[in-house]
Design goal:
The protein has helices at 35-53, 59-79, 137-154, 162-168, and strands spanning 3-11, 16-23, 28-33, 101-102, 105-113, 116-124, 130-135, 180-181. It starts with a strand and ends with a strand. The strands form 2 sheets. Strands 1-2-3-4 form a 4-stranded mixed β-sheet. Strands 7-6-5-8 form a 4-stranded antiparallel β-sheet. It is globular and about 45 Å long. The longest helix is centred in the middle third of the chain and has 21 residues, at 59-79. Helix 1 crosses helix 3 (137-154) and helix 2 (59-79) crosses helix 3. The chain contains 4 helices and 8 strands, in the order βββααββββααβ. It has one domain (3-181). The chain is α+β, with helices and mostly antiparallel strands and 182 residues long. The model is unreliable at 170-176 (pLDDT under 50).
Amino acid sequence: MSIKQFNATYSVHDDRILFRFNTVEDTEFRFWFTRRVSLFILAATAHLIAKNLEQTHSPEAAKAIVDFGKESIQVEKGGQGENQVDAYQPANHFPLGADALLVMDVKCALEKQAQEDVLSLDLVLPGGANINLKMAGQTLHAMCALLNQLREHAAWGDVPQVQDVIAAATPVADKSKKQLFH
């Protein structure tokens, strides 16, 4: 499954984000992200990327690289005219149904695939089922930029520091394994 486009809108009435994406295989997935889920995705993603960069750079350099990546997405977004943005193209197939599913929880981890660092994002759905998204590079930055823009629009406040998120998370038993946030 290869992601083609993202789309998200903030529902004032529900105080949630309707997040959907389509794939090159003409399928579409729709989810409701709560404030907690959205802020967690943004905090955990930023933390995992920074910690990964700190393995080869100083903490200050890693922060600068992360900030530069965020700014480059903003510049690209701001540099595009309204006519250059592709309109979201709804797909014809809905493997999980046409109605959006509420995301109950999220698990994030960075994985190595070939030579690229990939974010593995597990969306926990009602009944314990989950769907796993793997994103890297531009796709990952675009999703984060979209969620961040909607966070600002919804006036949900700042993204919490990851230490606040970790304190509320279940401790990982074996620290030698990959970093996983839940």
